[in-house]
Amino acid sequence: MSSRRFIIVIALSAFWAAPAAAASDPTRDDVMLNLQRCAGITDNRVWLNCFYGAAQPMRAQLGLPAAPESQVSLVKNTPLTPPPMSSESSGSGGWLGIGNIFSSSKPAEGMAGTLRLTAFSFGKDGLFTATLADGEVWKQSPYDDLRAHWSGQPSSYIVIVTSDLMGSHTMQVRDDQNYRVMRIK
Q1: How far, in Å, CA of 157 to CA of 88, rounded?
Q2: What per-residue confidence (pLDDT) applies to 21?
Q3: 107 — alpha (psi -120 to 50), left (phi > 0) or beta?
Q4: What's the pLDDT score for residue 95?
Q5: Cα separation, 170 vs 182, whole angstroms
Q6: What is the pLDDT of residues 154-183, one digit of tens each?
Q7: Distance of CA 52 to the CA centre of its chain
Q8: Crossing angle for the helix pair 69-77 and 44-54, nearest 10 degrees?
Q9: Which residues of the chain are under the pLDDT cut of 50?
Q10: Which pLDDT does position 131 carry in this prediction?
Q11: Could you tell me the CA-to-CA distances from 138 to 27, 116, 144, 170, 177 in Å, in that order?
Q12: Is there a contact between 110 and 174 (Cβ–Cβ < 8 Å)?
C-alpha cells in the first residue's frame, strides 16, 4: 500500500471510528499526525515499531506503560515528506512562491507533515521561538520581515515546516502567514 493510500485510509478511519466529541481531542490529533511520519517507512517491522511509538501521547494520557524509547525515537527521527503542492495553491504567493497550504477552508490536520505547537514565545525583537509536538524547536529568522501575533493556546496552532532553496525552511501556519525559520533543536 502506498504511503498516500495509507494516509487516506487512516484519515478516513478516524472519521468513521471516532465519536463526535473525540474529533477535537488534541491527543488523538497528535497521534494521527505522528502516524503520518511512519507512512514513508518501507520495512514492515520498522513501520510497526514506528506505529506503536506514534501512539505514545495517547498511552501517556491513559496512564498506560510508555512505549520503548526505540519506538518513540522512530517517530521523532523519521523525516517528514511534505505533501505535493497543488496547482491551485502554487500561485498563491508566499516566500519564494511557496504558497500557503492552509489557504483553503479544508482542515489541515489530515495533511502529511502537519503538527501542533506545544509552546511558543516571543523575543524582545518580536521574533518567535516555537516548539512542535514532535519536540523540534524552530526560531523565526531575523531576515523575516513578518511578525506573528499569536495569543491563543499553543495547541490551537497547526503548522508544517518545509525545506526551501539553499537549505532554508518555511513554517506555514494554518489561518496565518508563512514564516522563515531556523531549526535550533
Answers
A1: 23
A2: 46
A3: beta
A4: 41
A5: 8
A6: 999 999 888 876 677 888 998 888 898 989
A7: 18
A8: 100
A9: 18, 20-23, 82-108
A10: 95
A11: 22, 13, 13, 10, 15
A12: no
Q: Who contacts 117 (Cβ-Cβ below 8 Å, separation ≥6)?
A: 130, 131, 132, 133, 154, 155, 157, 158, 159
Partner residues linked to 170 by β-bridges? 162, 180
| Contacts within 8 Å (CB) and 24+ apart, 126-133 | 128/179, 129/184, 130/154, 130/159, 130/171, 130/181, 132/159, 132/161, 133/30, 133/33, 133/34, 133/57
- Look at the block and give the residue holding cell 525559520: 181
Helix residue ranges per DSSP H, the chain: 3-17, 26-38, 44-54, 56-62, 69-77, 87-90
Given this model, what pLDDT does residue 99 score?
46
The pLDDT value given to residue 163: 80
In a 10 Å sphere around its CB, with 0-12 CB exposed, 13-18 middle and 19+ buried, how is residue 124 labelled?
Answer: exposed
How many whole angstroms separate alpha carbon 58 and alpha carbon 7? 19
What is the residue type of 141?
S
C-alpha radius of gyration, the chain, whole number: 17
pTM passes above 0.85: no
Cell 502567514 -> residue: 177
Q: So where are the chain's domains? A: 3-77, 87-183
Position 139 scores a pLDDT of 94
By residue count, the chain amounts to 185
* 165 secondary structure, DSSP code: G
